[in-house]
Specification:
The protein is an alpha/beta fold. The protein has helices spanning about 40-50, 70-75, 95-100, 115-125, 140-155, 170-185, 195-200, 220, 225-230; strands at about 5-10, 15-25, 30-35, 55-60, 65, 80, 160-165, 185-190, 205-210, 210-215, 235-240, 245-250. The strands form 3 sheets. The chain has a 6-stranded mixed β-sheet with strand order 6-7-8-3-9-10, with helices on both faces. The protein has a 4-stranded antiparallel β-sheet with strand order 2-1-4-5, with helices on one face. Strand 1 (about 5-10) and strand 2 (about 15-25) form a beta hairpin. The mean pLDDT is about 95. Bound molecules: adenosine-5'-triphosphate. Adenosine-5'-triphosphate (ATP) binds near residues 13, 40 and 41. This is Iron complex transport system ATP-binding protein. GO terms for molecular function: ATP binding.
Length: about 260
């Protein structure tokens, strides 16, 4: 199912946070949104998971105007892992994951056998099955993040949007999650800070700066030393991954030393 952001603009308190952002995520494709802090990545995603209504422009999902759909209908099509995903109530992991079925079921209807199997599958995939009976408030940041991804998978969406999903995850779980997204067949729009992970996991990248899309295309076209210098203000050497062929960036720490430790 295709996801289309069509000329989205967002303004808050007289400041334009997003300017005419257009971006297409083809059905089954993985598109990464990258850019410096404050460039508008989360704002764009918030328009997609309906935490924010764009002032102008349209988000279309499978051709339909997302904001015109009943919430329940859009939740059947789209799941989100957001920066606002906090867990305040002491559900067990199994209970929280099962909540992913809410858009599909009426009231307090008990889960079917298939749905219970789906929950177990998602917990296995996210490596949290052994935590199933733990209270979510007792989990580490990375464990909780993986539980929230399991809940999103249980929602059985066609489209998944994720805002910095690798936050808190150790390197093994970062790789596992991004491999899962890539092989899932889901339509994925993901905000990532790590440009090397973005390069490895996305078919295409969109680069935001000051709320504008300044580049878009496959990682090999987008991730150039010039772009990284221009947009992020960082010197990077671009090399080709010897196994995958993806562009990867090598950084060197800057060596400025003012010799002062306090202002
Ligand atoms: N309600 C608001 N009023 C004014 N400015 C806002 C408001 N909400 C967000 N902003 C500003 O909009 C800009 C874009 O924020 P956004 O969270 O989309 O950036 P981001 O690219 O996701 O950043 P980060 O990489 O730091 O997560 C930021 O400068 C932020 O301070």
């Amino acid at each position: 199912m295709e996801l289309t952001l069509d000329r989205l603009s967002v303004t808050a308190n007289g400041t334009t946070l997003l300017r005419e952002l257009s971006l297409d995520v083809p059905g089954g494709g993985v598109v990464g949104l990258v850019g410096p802090n404050g460039s508008g990545k989360s704002t764009a995603l918030r328009c997609v998971y309906r935490a924010l209504r764009p002032h102008t422009g349209t988000v279309r999902i499978g051709g339909d105007d997302l904001h015109a759909l009943p919430l329940r209908d859009s939740a059947r099509r789209l799941a989100a892992l957001t920066q606002e995903n906090t867990v305040d109530l002491d559900f067990t992991v199994r209970e929280l994951v099962a909540l992913g079925r809410t858009p599909h079921n009426a009231g307090n209807q008990a889960l079917s056998r298939r749905e219970r199997d789906l929950c177990e599958w998602a917990m296995e995939r996210m490596d949290v099955a052994r935590l199933a009976d733990r209270g979510v408030l007792t989990l580490s940041g990375g464990e909780r993040q993986r539980v929230l991804v399991a809940r999103a998978l249980v929602q059985e969406p066609s489209v998944l949007v994720l805002d910095e999903p690798t936050n808190h995850l150790d390197v093994r779980h970062q790789i596992q999650l991004l491999s899962l997204l890539r092989g899932s067949g889901l339509t994925v729009l993901v905000v990532l800070h790590d440009l090397n992970l973005a390069s490895a996991s996305c078919d295409r990248l969109g680069v935001l700066r000051d709320g504008r899309l300044v580049a878009a295309g496959p990682p090999t076209e987008v991730l150039t030393a010039e772009l990284v210098r221009d947009v992020f203000g960082v010197e990077a050497t671009v090399v080709t991954h010897p196994v995958t062929g993806d562009p990867q960036l090598l950084y060197a720490l800057t060596t400025h030393d003012s010799g002062r430790t306090t202002p």
